[in-house]
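The record is passed on directly below:
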Amino acid sequence: MSPSPVFPRGGYLNLNSALAKLGHAPTALAINDAATIKTLAIEETPGGIVAPLLSVVRVLPTPTDRGGLIELAMGPFRVFGTDLTATSVQDEAGLNTQLQYWHGLVSSYSSALSFDTCFSRWYPSRNMWHQRPGWVLEISQSRSPYQWNLSLAEGPFLNPAGPWFARDFNDLVSTWIECPTFSQQSNSPLLYMVIPEGRGWLERISQDGRELIIDIAGSHLGHFCAILWSDYEDKTERHILQAQDTRTLRLDVPSAIRTLSVSLWTHQGELLDRFDETAQSSSWGTSVLRPGVRHPLAATLEMALGRGEGETIEFKSWVGPTASDAKAMELIATVVAFANAGGGTLYIGVSDSGEVVGTTRELFKWKGLPGAPEDKKRLAYLQQIVKLVTEGISPTPDVHYNWIEYAGLHVLQIEVQPGSHAPYGVVTTNAFLQRRGATNRTMSRAELELVFRTRA
């Protein structure tokens, strides 16, 4: 049985226990005791209370990445940042002290934070948070001392002193706070702590003819590398190699591999990193077995896969492009719900569990354009989906459509913009829906009356 890592690979833990583990992380994970913290706060009225929305603490691979104390205004938002050390945060009181670093830069701020839950999640390398494998701790607040209205601040934002620019709220969060998961619909402040692995990780995997090449990075040698591959004749082999005095491992394999799994372990049996590729997906987004297979929107899809279904994301394995199809009516309902809320994105070709399955198999089952090549079927299918949405919703919402190629598979992205002509309704049922969490909820009479008064 593998020994316990510094943090759980998934699950809740006591906050003070997590912070104590964070203090030991530099030694346990062979990383530097250097970190930065960035905070996004909102000042809804000029000169009013400044309240935190989000903070991200990142333990840094090298101390040279530090930036010192920063303050940046972007519309009603304030971006703050400073340096700290992982060992300086040992308990909840110490965390609260560190999070108040920006209070001296403003005249009025909200009260001290009260934390609720701490959830630990481990990610393999090249994840949405970091190039290295590591942990992300998500710490939520049990009560909000301040209520904000983010709909008043959709963007774009410009600070001419830099100049600095953000397209919208999500761009502001991802670019300046470097947080890929915080949503505009979040209703309480969050704190993320990003702790990268330093002992070892898979830096590069490539195939040169009949040779598989695995490059390992990190401070320690002696790791074990477990390899499982299968070819197109369903032949499967398992190998375990040890990187005793080298950072490059080589293995003879068939020239055409169908699936590949590579994992890196310490000599005590603790998992450090892993990579998996099938015909449907690749851990790194780009294909190792089929180099160059990547769509420009693949990163957007990867972020959605990491977040899972929720208030702004919906997955559908397949939607029949006719009004008589039950999944088609679910699609229309979700587009309506997104448009009546803060917008959202649907992906057709992704299962509910977040597995990319593509649309090829169902496209060839579909009766549209029999005998046509797949690219023509995709175009015809898209046209039918557009018609379905346009004719099934009133008024017509603002929707953008894109095909995403991901590890050789095609996924249809349907991006619904926040509606400027709400409320939107389903034509056949006259239902008005709004997104709440991962469900579409019927709007109440009071909510509808409020929307109509606002539009008037």
